[in-house]
Each structure stands twice: as structure tokens, then as C-alpha cells.
Amino acid sequence: MRHTTSKTLALLALLLPLAASAHTGVDGGLHHGFTTGFLHPLTGADHLAAMVAVGLWSALAARRAWPDLLWAPLAFAGMLLVGALMGLAGMQLPAVEPMIAASLLVLGLLVVTRIHLPAAVAMAVVGVFAVFHGVAHGYELASEEGAALTLAGMVSATVALHLAGIALGWALRHANAWLPRVAGAAVVVLGATLLAQAV
């Protein structure tokens, strides 16, 4: 358990420096194909942290494995896709980057508190934030060829990150009380850093 704790803390420490280049331009604007789309959420600290946090919170707050584990991740992945399609269509939303940063603050606090929300509320909370994450992707993809494949890669990576968060959260539900709080606090700090840069 001590070895796992050390690895997790090291991972969190490595994520924080990515805040300075967390979203726009991380992959140099090269958006083409499934592989590039799959890698994009893994190279931006904001997307990586948000997606893992959704799964982590779902596992920590679930009263039962099924279907509580899946409501928030499914809502996030689905609304991420909706937001990306909105961005591809040229729809404009205000304050995209501040809302992405705010999503980290909220998701981090949800992880720290392990608060259980009714399914509809949980889906609404993460769904609204997911739209902004998706719109940011859609804006970046709007002038690219092969946007559909790239978007498929992004959604696949989102689901994979949710599953990783669920697995981590489920393993820590009863094994450790403070480690999830440290992870949630790290997401809050990242969100606060990004919000300060965005405003």
C-alpha cells in the first residue's frame, strides 16, 4: 500500500507543472486521426484531471456499484461529444477556459468531500462542465480534416480516463481515507491555477 501511495503522489506532483500549458496548443495544433485525438486529453492537465476526477468521485461517492458508478462518467462523455459538435459547428460559448478551470475546482471538491448527489444532479453538474471541455476541443478541430476520427479518439480517451478514475476510486474506497482527499485537493489547486491564468 505504501508503494501505491508513493506512486500516486508522484503522479499528482508531475501533473501540476502541466498547468501552464494545460489546454490550448499542447499538441501543437495537430489534430488529425484517431490516435492524435486519443492522445490529446492525455497531454492536457485540465482534461486529464477532470476526466479522472469524474471517475474517482463516482467510485468514492457511490452507494452501490451499479448503476451509481456510471451516471456521471456517461454524462460527461456524452456531453463532451455534444460540446465538441457545437464547437465544430461554430457555436460560441462565453468563458470557455474559465469554465474549464471552474470544473476542476468543483470536481476536486467533490472528490475531497465524497459527497453523494442524486443521479440526475450528478449528471447535470458534470454534463454542464463537459460541454465546455467539448466546445474547446471542437473549436480546435473546426479547421481540421478528419475531425470525426479525431473526436472519436478523444471520446475513447475520455471513457478510458473515467474507467481509470473509477478503478482507483473503488480501490481506495475503504483502503485509505486521506489519499483521495490529497488527489482532490491537487485537482482544486490545478483548477485555481488555471482560473487565475484565465481571468
Could you explain the architecture of this structure?
The chain is an all-alpha fold and 199 residues long. The protein has eight helices and no strands. Helix 3 (45-61) packs across helix 7 (147-172) and helix 5 runs antiparallel to helix 6. Mean pLDDT is 85; it is low at 4-29.
On the 0-100 scale, what is the average pLDDT?
85
Specify the number of helices.
Answer: 8
Assign the structural class, choosing from mainly alpha, mainly beta, alpha/beta, alpha+beta, or little secondary structure. mainly alpha
Q: How many strand segments? A: 0
**Shape assignment:** globular
Largest sheet: none
Strand content: under 5%
Series of H and E elements: HHHHHHHH
> What percent of the residues sit in helical stretches (DSSP H or I)?
over 70%
Terminal-residue CA separation: 40 Å
Any idea what the radius of gyration is?
16 Å
Low-confidence parts: 4-29
